[in-house]
TrEMBL record:
Origin superkingdom: Bacteria
Gene3D superfamilies: Aldehyde Dehydrogenase, Chain A, domain 1 (3.40.605.10), Aldehyde Dehydrogenase, Chain A, domain 2 (3.40.309.10)
Record family assignment: Belongs to the aldehyde dehydrogenase family.
Protein name, as recorded: Putative aldehyde dehydrogenase DhaS
Record-annotated Aldehyde dehydrogenase domain positions: 14-473
Active-site annotation: E247
GO MF, one example: oxidoreductase activity, acting on the aldehyde or oxo group of donors, NAD or NADP as acceptor
Pfam families for the chain: Aldedh
Keyword annotations from UniProtKB, A to Z: Oxidoreductase
Length: 478
């Protein structure tokens, strides 16, 4: 596959390069170009020219829809190739990349291809005589899509599909740890006939992202990543009055009532807490368990987590793959040390995997019991396979404890009392609440966070709104 940047419909290298590693082995997979400020300028200029070109702006809605349907078909045809590449570059097991990430990306292209012919304005009665008034939704222009390393392909498509469906052009900056599936998707877009300049990809580290955010011809920034970086982007966008969507960090609570089916709860929370080795912003990491069942839950959770098979994601028997990088591995280990020093009870894990896995970035799934609300491991995002169990005494305290965090991306509720679950769901400050189920996603369901977990929404009609603006048109009928 190509490992150059994709700018203005051409593949281009760079003066300097950086490596991307296989997290299962630590080995270098490929060297990629580090974009310069000039490369970013070229990519934005290409997107700006393409935005106004008849080859793109002049497409009828049905023609643009057909292009997106074709992208979905080509991606689906190469699904196995994309899954293996995603697993090799990011580490997630094939069951996730092939069973979740790639199919979800295909679904999003088809979903937004269907929206292209259905984006409408409104007419409204005004209290002004002899006037016809209507609105129309128009694309924003050049959009910068800055994507994370945990689900590189899938989260990119959450942004790219609605951006293209609404007629925008884009410059993509994938995470430097996991750029390969983005470049392979650029090949598919080219093959599908997306006009030159409509989609551009620049590779590199944080400075490349900063150059994109600050570029005067970028009208919109869509970013998924850490809250700290999101705050910087929001401040920069605010000064320039650019539109911005941010999906940021999380520290999701999972509330488990005394009447819950504990075996089903353990299975569901193991999935939500350790999916992709815990590198999920919506991962359940704070388990609030009724005190009468907290010890039983913690023991069962630790037993199930400790029995999971670690290994390369390319091994179909692997249940838990590596984390993405040495940097992430070190961060996880630091937090485990903090948990121990704070007095939490370590039930399983708490160390890097050795033996035949020693060269990769593997961390054993870790469960802490006896965790207090003010401990750092219960308050700060670790982004790894570290789970914390916090007992509670009275249901009335749950909403306040669940909301006692700067984050508000997701929450989980487990109880047979559906009325109580829905009342609590209304009280919890989170963008998404799952009741008696692990985290599932659908292109039609809005996704995003509250508080420090971000602003704006992806998926559903909300993404159409995020990549358009409303124009009012008045006509004098007199």
């Amino acid at each position: 596959m190509r490992t150059d940047m994709y700018i203005g419909g051409k593949w281009t290298g760079g003066a300097t390069t950086f490596p991307t590693h296989n997290p299962a082995t630590g080995e270098v997979i490929a060297e990629l170009p580090e974009a310069t400020a000039s490369d970013v300028d070229s990519a934005v200029e290409a997107a700006s020219v393409a935005f106004a070109s008849p080859e793109w702006a002049g497409l009828l809605p049905a023609q643009r829809a057909r292009l997106l349907f074709k992208v979905a078909d080509l991606l689906e045809q190469r699904a196995a190739e994309f899954a293996r590449l995603e697993t090799t570059d990011q580490g997630q097991p094939l069951a996730i990349s092939g069973g979740f990430s790639v199919p979800n990306a295909v679904e999003h292209f088809r979903y937004y291809a269907g929206w292209v012919t259905k984006i409408t304005g409104v007419t409204a009665p005004l209290s002004v005589p002899d006037v016809d008034y209507r609105t129309r939704r128009e694309p924003l222009g050049v959009c910068a899509l800055i994507t994370p390393w945990n689900f590189p392909l899938m989260i990119l498509v959450w942004k790219l599909a609605p951006a293209l469906a609404t007629g925008n052009t884009v410059v993509i900056k994938p995470a430097e740890q996991t750029p390969l599936s983005t470049l392979l998707l650029a090949e598919v877009l080219e093959q599908a006939g997306i006009p030159a300049g409509v989609v551009n990809v620049v590779t590199g580290g944080p400075e490349v992202g900063k150059a994109l955010v600050r570029h005067p011809k970028v009208a919109k920034i869509s970013f998924t990543g850490s809250t700290a970086v999101g705050r910087e982007i929001a401040a920069e966008a605010g000064r320039a009055l650019k539109k911005v969507s941010l999906e940021l960090g999380g520290k999701a609570p999972s509330i488990i009532a005394a009447d819950a089916d504990l075996d089903a709860v353990v299975e569901g929370n193991l999935m939500s807490g350790l999916l992709n080795s815990g590198q999920v912003c919506a991962a359940a990491t704070r388990f609030y368990v009724d005190r009468v069942r907290a010890d039983e839950f913690a023991e069962k959770l630790a037993g199930a987590a400790g029995s999971m098979k670690l290994g390369s994601g390319l091994d179909e028997t692997t249940q838990l793959g590596p984390v993405v990088s040495q940097e992430q591995l070190d961060q996880i280990d630091r937090y485990v040390g903090i948990g121990r020093s704070e007095g939490a009870q370590l039930l399983t894990g708490g160390e890097r995997a050795g033996g035949e896995l020693a060269n990769g970035y593997f961390y054993r799934p870790t469960v802490f019991a006896g965790v207090a609300q003010d401990m750092r491991i219960a308050r700060e995002e670790i982004f790894g396979p570290v789970l914390t169990v916090l007992p509670y005494d009275e249901p009335e305290e749950l909403a306040a404890r669940a909301n006692d965090t700067e984050y508000g991306l997701a929450a989980y509720l487990w109880t047979r009392d559906i009325g109580a679950a829905n009342r609590l769901a209304h009280q919890v400050k989170a963008g998404t609440v799952w009741i008696n189920m692990p985290p599932l996603l659908d292109a039609g369901a809005a996704w995003g966070g509250m508080k420090a977990s971000g602003m704006g929404r992806e998926m559903g009609w909300e993404a159409i709104e995020a990549f358009t603006e409303v124009k009012s048109i008045w006509t004098n009928l007199a």
